[in-house]
Amino acid sequence: MNRRHLIAAGALAALAGIAPAAAQTYPTRPITMIIPFAAGGPTDVVGRIVAEAMSKSLGQTVVIENVAGAGGTTGSNRLTQLQPDGYSIMIGHTGTHAASVALYPNLRYNPVSDFAQIGLVNTNAILITAKKALPANTLAEFVTWLKANERTANNAHAGIGSVSHTTCLLLHATIGVRPQSVPYRGTGPAMNDLVAGQVDYLCDQVVNVAPQVRAGTIKAFAVAQASRNSALPDVPTTTEAGLPAYQVVVWNAMLAPKGTPEPIVARLNEALRAALADANVKARLAELGADLPADNLVTPAGLRSFLEAEIAKWTPVIKAAGVTAGN
Predict the structure, then answer these.
(1) Helix %, strand %, coil % for the chain, to 5?
(2) Crossing angle of helices 139-148 and 163-175, rounded to 10°
(3) Pick from 4, 14, 189, 252: most CB atoms within 10 A?
(4) Cα–Cα–Cα angle for 179, 289, 215, rounded to 5 degrees
(5) What string of DSSP letters covers 41-67?
(6) What is the model's pLDDT at position 94?
(7) How far is CA 316 from CA 101, 310, 323, in A?
(8) Rounded Cα distance, 254 and 92, in Å
(9) Which residues belong to the signal peptide in this entry (predicted)?
(10) According to CATH, where is 3.40.190.10 located in the chain?
């Protein structure tokens, strides 16, 4: 081996040693967690709970940065522009890393290949709700009413690409209807009009709608998961209520920029696992109606396969509805 080859080999060996060395001392300063939505929403609340617990495990503060806009794609794209050094991570969700592929024709990132997957954080049950005055009291009666009133029925949601939008698209596809869609600038305004009786129904996460259901200001027909939700144990599942084909949960996932060294990803995954195993975190998530994911999904490989499956699931539903969003 000549001198040039020796120098090149030495350089490669030095570079190869950077990642393990960095991982041994990582982290040495605060970590920023991007939440691609406004403060106070379900993803933000979950992110803050998990970030607090991860801070203890990592020995460094995990600082929340809310970067809202374009259905969460603005914040997601921001992460792809940051250094893959483990000091920038994010919480993505069903909209930013699955539905976005079909909703945004000019999406500036690939939800799978442009990120380093850390692990699934939680899943959230979807609840089918309606205004108090709607002439239906069970899911079966609601389906019958919706089919009979397809032309005039209106579905409120938090904006194109939101969870409340995409999950109701799936409901409509399951039932075989295409009612009117009424977009709002967030779940709050949509819920206000549902309570006031200005719109007919809403599909959204239990964490968002449970307070109004408990208060009796809206109707709850069914939760779209296999078992009843701990936050609303009296509400039947869609299987129990006669619509077993409508099974849908939304989720939050932790990601880092593409190229983040594997040892650092492993350290972040370890901290995530520790957070989800914490009794206080479990209790707080359960109170919100959020569920912990299966263990095999709290891994980089498991999350990657999960994202690919979710994209394959949501793309045909959204394309069939003919819905796109500007970018």
Answers:
(1) 45, 20, 35
(2) 80
(3) 252
(4) 70
(5) SHHHHHHHHHHHHHHHHHTS-EEEEE-
(6) 94
(7) 10, 11, 11
(8) 6
(9) 1-23
(10) 125-223
Cβ pair 193, 201 in contact under 8 A: no
Long-range contact pairs involving 262-265 (C-beta distance under 8 Å, separation at least 24) = 262/19, 263/19, 263/20, 263/22, 263/23, 263/26, 264/19, 264/22, 264/23, 264/26, 264/85, 264/86, 265/86, 265/116, 265/117, 265/118, 265/300
Give the C-alpha separation, 141 to 312, whole Å: 31
Position 23 scores a pLDDT of 63
User: Which letter does DSSP use for residue 159 in this model?
Assistant: S
- Structurally, at CATH architecture level, domain 125-223 sits in 3-Layer(aba) Sandwich (3.40)
3-state secondary structure of 129: strand
Separation of alpha carbons 204 and 213, rounded Å: 12
pLDDT of residue 317: 87
Question: How many H-runs (helices) and E-runs (strands) does the chain carry?
Answer: 12, 10
How many residues are listed for the chain in this entry? 327
- Can you list the positions of beta strands (E) in 41-187? 62-66, 88-93, 115-131, 154-157, 180-183
For 250-275, write each residue's pLDDT tens digit.
999 999 999 999 999 999 999 999 99
pTM, entire model: 0.85
Name the residue among 314, 303, 291 with its Cα closest to residue 71: 314
Cα-atom radius of gyration of the chain, to the nearest Å?
22
Residue 305 and residue 126 in contact, taking contact as beta carbons nearer than 8 Å: no
pLDDT value at position 19? Answer: 53
Range 63-88 average pLDDT: 95
Element (H, E) at 202: strand 201-205
Position 8 scores a pLDDT of 46
- In the chain, CATH 3.40.190.150 sits at 3-123+251-321
CATH of 3-123+251-321, one of 3.40.30.10, 3.30.300.30, 3.40.190.150, 3.10.20.880: 3.40.190.150
